[in-house]
Structures are given as C-alpha cells and as structure tokens.
Design goal:
The protein is mainly α. It contains 4 helices and 2 strands, in the order E-E-H-H-H-H. Helix 2 crosses helix 3.
C-alpha cells in the first residue's frame, strides 16, 4: 500500500493513504486510528499560564522561521494574543507566509514536536 507521512497544518504527524476501494479505505482508517491511539492526548490550554506558554512557543517559532529567511506575520502583543485566544478568534500562525510545499522542512527546523503549543 502506498502511504506518505508528513506534518499537518497543526504541526502534528499526518498520514495520507490513497484509497482505491472501500475495503482499503476502511483498513486505512483502522491503521490511522490505531496510530492515534498510541499518541498522548493533545492538551488544551486552560488558563493564562498555558496561553503564555503557547504564546512564547509561537514567538520562538516565528523568530526561527524569520531566521531561516522567510517572511512571518507580525507578532501580536501578549495582550492582543490573549484577547484573541480567549475569544476563540486567534488567526496568527507563524507559518502562514511560508509556501505550503516548504512547511515540513521549516517545521523540522523551527517546531519542536514535543511541545503541543
């Protein structure tokens, strides 16, 4: 079976399987679910301290991406970030201006997969 593994827009591992039949699609779904079951749950930030860790991590990603020679969106102030994330309207993504085809390469250099936020 042909398959590829890459990084999804959220920084998590993403497997892609071409489905050629319903049976194969079902097998692929089972494999994906089994893989997901081995991963720790993704924690959700619950308080300002969690949001501050998220902010600091994203600021670090932004600096790294810029040091790699890519444009990055302006970094919001901590208060702007906090207001946006509390209101569930955060639209700041450090990778937003990196060409999609280069996301995996940039993530390997600038995104720590051990850190959720």
């Amino acid at each position: 079976m042909d398959a590829s593994v890459g990084t999804g827009p959220d920084g998590r591992a993403q497997a892609t399987f071409p489905a050629r039949s319903r049976e194969e699609l079902e097998r692929n779904s089972k494999v994906i679910e089994a893989c997901k079951a081995t991963l720790p749950e993704r924690p959700e930030p619950k308080n300002d301290a969690d949001f501050k860790l998220m902010y600091d991590h994203l600021v670090g990603q932004s600096r790294c991406i810029k040091s790699e020679g890519y444009d990055v969106p302006p970094v919001p102030s901590w208060q702007s970030f906090l207001d946006a994330v509390r209101g569930d309207r955060l639209d700041w993504e450090p990778l937003a201006l990196v060409p999609e085809g280069l996301w995996d390469e940039v993530r390997k250099k600038c995104v720590n997969p051990e850190i959720w936020w």
